[in-house]
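notes to self, project folder thing:

trying the whole complex as one job this time. last attempt i did each chain seperately and stitching them together was a nightmare. two parts in total, labels are on each line so i dont mix them up again. if this works i'll redo the older ones the same way
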Amino acid sequence: MTTATVRTGTRPVFWVALGLLAVVLLALPLILRSDSRLNIAILVLVYAALAQAWNLLGGFAGQISLGNAAFFGLGAYTSTILFSRWEVTPWLGMLGGALVAAVFAVIIGYPVFRLGGHYFAIATIAMAEIVLTVFNDWEFVGGAVGLLIPFARVDGRPADSWYYLQFNQHKEPYYYIALALVVLVTAVTIGVSRSKVGYYLRAIKNDQQAARALGVHVLRYKLIAIALSAAFSAIVGTFYAQYLLYIDPETTMRLELSVLIALVAILGGVGTVAGPLIGAAVLIPAAELTRSQLGGTGNAVDLILYGGLIILISIFQPNGLMGLVERVRRRGRGRPLTPPSDEEALAREEAPLLGTYEEERG
Amino acid sequence: MDTTLLIQALVNGLLIGMVYALISVGLTLIFGLMEIVNFAHGEFLMLAMYAAFWGSVLLHLDPMVSLPLTVAGLGLLGLVTYRGIIAQILRAPMLAQIFATFGLGLFLRGLAQYLWSPNFRTVERPWLGQLSGGTVDLGGVFLGVPQIAAAVLAALAFAALSLFISRTRVGLALQAVAEDRATATLMGIDSNRMFALGWVIGGACVGLAGAVLACFYPITPTVGILFGLMSYIVVALGGFGSVPGALVAGLLVGLVQEASPIVFGVPTTYKYAVVFALYLVVVLIRPQGLFGRF
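result (full assembly):
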């Protein structure tokens, strides 16, 4: 949707808005001036990047993954083990984690992409649960207790270090690194969505049989999508590990995390570039604030509100916030609502796919 | 390998497998009718268990006595869920459907935690637990009475449901809607009423399962997560929409879960992972599940 906007006439306004947004985002740590608010901003960026990575697979290719936390966790664990055992800098660990996750995703994806609809979604849950169980039980990676990431020390005191990707005194660099990750994964998403791969992925999502009939190598492009999705999820995982300086299987790989990642993208609008970013900007502060304001004593009011909000969005705004934006924009221009946008048309196409399975390799 | 241990594990597996099958049958029935997966199914079970617990605490009714109330209450919850949420999203994208029921699950879990705290609860001295000391000894193989009762009730419910679906006019109408909604509507079947009925039956089955589970399983707001997850695996393994599939897959999952530590020597912490692996292996050979129609 955003890419379409750029091409159709709104160019100056769009670029000015983007410039303003960039200035605000760059200046945000100066405005927030408190670690707890900065923490929320960093979490927004983390989830924006994760949802954007999910979007490559779930949004463009239409393959609903409820197991992306496994890729996130693999990234976190790979860099942490490389660092805590062999002192490899987390920047290299980040690349290593991306590689591990991408290879794992391709190995998993090769057989699992034969499945369609709910069978695929549940297979991704099963995959992630198996990884979680293995890590919970595996002594080498700390088992269920998890791993502490050693402090980077100067004169025996925890210090800031770009080499060790640790900022124990001032947290601002974490924010800028997370922002850079969001920009990176968004740039890749835009690149993919405009490339041949992006068109193939949308064709697969729209009608897999037709795409294959037209000569699209369906499995190859799905594997590209899952590898990219996994690699970027893993990169964010490394960042998250360095930010918390502690990881365990439950926090990095649990099912709720996979669901939340998908939810952020869906709330914003799947298959659009801006959707996951908007979803994160709305959902994460709302979740964090309700948790800190209402759920502090573990009375779960935050869960109730959160669940209720999800139900309401599903009923009243099933195409996400981007659907809302699109509607307002059309109304503003006085255009009729009748011809559905590509995304809406695609979203409607999804319904008949439910529960069917497709033979992937022909 | 100790034979007694193996038999014990297999019997345990069959008993818990029947409960899995009972929990899953509503899920698969609903999917067969309207191609929606209720991701709040585990939370329905959790509420049923709490209903049995509060019945025992507040009304001094044994879970077996309050069972009809629990079943009826959960059937009603199914109806309300269908009317209030599902009927609104029948034509929404699949993602919106998934997340509507996911949201409902979170909402119910939060509500249970808010109202009843996250503490573990157990039904004090359930009637089934005291019957013949709570266990039966079959030549070295010990069976819990509540577990046996759960499996027997589940089997009875399955038989009743199968008869209802295959022998009554309403049951045939259910099948007709599952088969072809448009044609069924042309034959004068109100598909909306059949959908609602599917949700009532699904709720009632889970209500029955929750009432018996409450006799031997600790109750927390999060108890539905594992059972919910297992029931999705069972339904997908058996084939979405297939009632016999839910039965066979439920038993298979129960057997594999309990027997894998003894037969394959995997650590017990892996028993659920083995079940997930089983699912992956089966759907890779048969992508539509064991009894899937596609």
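what i see at first glance: Chain B has one domain: 3-285.
need to look closer tmrw
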